[in-house]
Amino acid sequence: MPKSKRAKVVHLTKTQKKGKELTLRLYANIQECVPQFPYIYVFSVENMRNNYLKNVRADLAGDSRIFFGKTSVMARALGDSPSTEPFPSTSLLSPHLSGPCGLIFSHRDPPTMLAHLDAYHPLSYARAGTISTSAFSLLSGPLVYDPEGESTPIPAEQEPMLRKLGVPTRMEKGRVMLDEPFEVCKEGEILGSGQTTLLKMFRVTMAEFRVSVKACWTKETGEVRVVRVAKDGVDSETIPNENGSKARMEVMEMGMEEKDEGFEGFEAEG
Predict the structure, then answer these.
(1) Paired sense of beta strands 101-106 and 39-46, if any
(2) How much is the average pLDDT of 229-248?
(3) Among the listed ranges 91-95, 197-201, 254-258, which one has the minimum average pLDDT value?
(4) Under 8 Å CB-to-CB from 235, ≥6 apart: which residues?
(5) b/e for 1-40, b at 16 or more Cβ within 10 A?
């Protein structure tokens, strides 16, 4: 039969799946980094934003390397048991790889790394499911938002969207008016999609991006230290390694003046 001359739809956005190739590359890169860095950190991310994580990666680029991929692949690369781990005790990090988390291979010691990550916590717009950090209401009168310290009227084009979101607005001489105060959210409330849309329209940020260390592996000692954030500092507990030794550390203050103390001062227990 002659070849069909019908116009065929060609999807220009069609891409090939990397799949196994990407998985193998992640696995190989992690195992390659283990002997090259003295510290491995398992970190978790609150209110994940790609651009903020890129900033963290850029800040640590000089002496560290970050991996943020499939947790199962990262855990397998660190080892499921002492017989499969690339270095002694790296398999003890695997149980902490759950949820939105990743790995940092670094030459920075724990006090320096904790101080650096704790200092970076930019605010962003909340997404649905986020718990509000404060109450927010719209005042009666002309609706305005305050982007840079100057009250700017809400554009008239957004008035239909406001009414769609349940705000009883009306137009008066080209201005968006509100006859009575309107409560958008209460403090501690789980935000819905409509509430987050209103908060973004009025330039209210309630989501704090934060990278927290969950556990740290030290190449020199082969120890894995679990880091727990407390109200008055950071509490750390060392997981016993193969020879059964274990240590503990008292609560460490997060003040930058005391960063030299940090993870030092461990006392061995028999």
Answers:
(1) antiparallel
(2) 45
(3) 254-258
(4) 227, 228, 229, 249, 251, 252
(5) eeeeeeeeeeeeeeeeeeeeeeeeebbeebbebbeebebb
Residue 244: what pLDDT? Answer: 40
| Residue whose token pair is 């991929």 | 69
Band the pLDDT of 191: cuts 50, 70, 90: very high
Instruction: Give the distance, in angstroms, between the CA of residue 155 and the centroid of all CA atoms in the same chain.
Output: 33
**pTM of the prediction?**
0.73
Residue range 89-137, pLDDT digits in tens? 899 999 999 888 999 999 999 999 999 999 999 999 999 999 999 999 9
**Token pair 């060609």: residue:** 10
Q: Tell me the C-alpha to C-alpha distance, in Å, between residue 173 and each of 105, 142, 153, 176, 244.
A: 60, 11, 13, 9, 78
Paired tokens of 163: 């009414």
Distance CA 32, CA 41 (A): 16
Compute the distance between CA of residue 253 and CA of residue 239 in angstroms, rounded to an integer.
Answer: 21
b/e 150-166 (16+ beta carbons within 10 angstroms → b): eeeebeeeebeebeebe
Q: 57 to each of 47, 68, 108, 109, 146, how far by Cα in Å?
A: 16, 10, 14, 17, 31
pLDDT of 147 strictly over 70: no
Burial of 202-238, coded b for 16+ CB within 10 Å and e otherwise, reads bebebbebbbbbbbbbbbeebbbbbbeeeeeebebeb
171-200 exposure pattern, b = at least 16 Cβ within 10 A, e = fewer: eeeeebbbeeebebbeeeeebeeebbbbbe
Which position has the higher pLDDT, 37 or 227? 37
pLDDT at 230 over 70: no
